[in-house]
């Protein structure tokens, strides 16, 4: 099956610093990737849709200046949490859909746990 | 408003029994519905997809039904095992926005 790699798996940072999370599709090209946020014992909340070569589409209530998304290539999307604060602590997960017959299925990265002190 | 609801937040059953999880939705007309498994601290893993013209889909010990009249999907795990313990998420595609929306999940625990 398709593989999506996410890095880092865990990051601790001080309040006010920025953190970058990478999402890579290892064996397929993804023109679109998705970024989710998940709080403990809650479901995945879609933050934004990352589009290769164009601006990301953000969900209502998500600050685009706070959560910067860059999809510079067909295999890499990055999410940068700028000026992180403790309330940004969460589990961030990316996903991608391979082209072709599997396009309806999302393949997820392992997630990044962000802790802001 | 659009909603996807998984009726049980948690389900605890005896090993060997059949686990049945429910997913209901309102104000969607999905072409298909998906089920994913998520283990703690991990990303979800795709299990099954069922299309609107399919009543039932099976994969090994898993079975999914899809009733577009009731706007409901049932997810069954037969001969359940402790290793089946996880959170199970149903998901629909919001075709107007080309994105997949997830239900809140059901945390399944299988006790030996």
Give the arrangement of secondary structure elements:
The complex is a heterodimer of chains A (117) and B (112).
Chain A: E1 4-7, E2 10-13, E3 19-25, E4 32-38, E5 45-51, E6 57-58, E7 67-73, E8 76-81, E9 90-96, E10 107-108, E11 112-116
Parallel strand pairs in A: 2-11
Antiparallel strand pairs in A: 1-3, 3-8, 4-5, 4-9, 5-6, 7-8, 9-10, 9-11
Chain B: E1 3-6, E2 10-14, E3 19-26, E4 32-38, E5 45-51, E6 56-59, E7 62-67, E8 72-77, E9 86-94, E10 99-102, E11 106-111
Parallel strand pairs in B: 2-11
Antiparallel strand pairs in B: 1-3, 3-8, 4-5, 4-9, 6-7, 7-8, 9-10, 9-11
Write a short abstract of this structure.
The complex is a heterodimer of chains A (117) and B (112). With 117 residues, chain A is mainly β.
Structural write-up:
The complex is a heterodimer of chains A (117) and B (112). By secondary structure, chain A is mainly β. Helices cover 0% and strands 50% of the residues of chain A. In chain B, 0% of the residues lie in helices and 59% in strands. Chain B is an all-beta fold. In chain B, the strands form 2 sheets. In chain B, strands 2, 4, 5, 9, 10 and 11 form a 6-stranded mixed sheet that branches. The model of chain B has no long low-confidence stretch (mean pLDDT 92). Chain B starts with a strand and ends with a strand. The A-B interface holds A 1, 4, 6, 32, 34, 41-44, 46, 49, 91, 93, 95, 104-111, 113 and B 32, 34, 41-46, 49, 89, 91, 93, 98-105, 107.
